[in-house]
Design brief:
Elements: H1 3-23, H2 29-43, H3 49-62, H4 68-72
Helix pairs in contact: 1-2, 2-3
Length: 73
């Protein structure tokens, strides 16, 4: 993956995380994970089950801004 493609993917993942975080406060991890998968599918990016789990956990535990790039690093 080129640096430009990686940057575009990171930006897309961050947009998805921000969207899910903003309206999923208090939702179960399964719901958050499902919405993350839906968002990834909508924009055509691939996230592993492990990535989804990490992001869902961060969204649930932080109840605020989640930096997707640092969570997935």
């Amino acid at each position: 993956m080129t640096d430009e493609n990686a940057a575009e993917k990171n930006e897309a993942v961050q947009i998805i995380v921000d969207r899910v975080s903003s309206w999923q406060d208090g939702a179960t991890e399964g719901t958050v994970a499902e919405e993350l998968r839906k968002g990834a599918d909508e924009v055509g990016i691939e996230l592993s089950d492990d990535d989804i789990a990490k992001l869902a956990d961060a969204i649930e535990s932080r109840h605020g801004v989640v930096d997707a790039k640092s969570v997935l690093s």
